[in-house]
Design brief:
There is one protein chain. This protein is of the alpha+beta class. The chain is built from one helix and three strands; from the N terminus they run E-E-E-H. The longest helix is centred in the C-terminal third of the chain and has 35 residues, at 47-81.
């Protein structure tokens, strides 16, 4: 049995919509918080700057997640290729 993983080209990026909470801080800065994603927030001097920084942080976080997932899939692939397949045993090749 073969395990096929479908991937999409990196050139097509789906548009995702996120809920962002904007808070004016006592020191005059603006905090943008991405709701539903722990520890994803940024500060800026303006609302626009805070949102731009938040967007950059989210992009970095997503790129890291993709890199880590790719690494795990490679490890899994190496482990799967090392399985000795016997008759009537489920194997991934």
């Amino acid at each position: 049995m073969n395990l096929a993983i479908k991937t999409t080209p990196l050139t097509t990026t789906p548009k995702l919509i996120y809920d962002v909470l904007i808070e004016n801080q006592q020191d005059g800065t603006v905090k943008a918080i991405l709701l539903g994603l722990p520890d994803c927030e940024d500060l800026g001097n303006t609302e626009t700057e805070a949102i731009e920084k938040l967007s950059q942080s989210l992009q970095t976080r997503l790129e890291t997640a993709i890199t880590e997932t790719t690494f795990l899939l490679k490890i899994y692939g190496l482990m799967a290729s090392a399985i000795i397949c016997l008759p009537e045993v489920f194997c991934i090749s």
